[in-house]
User: Fold this.
Amino acid sequence: MSDPKTTVSQIVAEKLRSRGKKVEVLDGDVVRQNLSKGLGFSQEDSDINIRSIG
Assistant:
């Protein structure tokens, strides 16, 4: 069973693409593994991860 947030993001992305919009979906877990290695799930680490994505 997939993560509900992932499912929603995929549905929204497809709807936007069908309207001609360019969309890139960033999965927080994938970003955390590749861009923000070593971060945990504390509020501070989550804030750092979100800033990295931005």
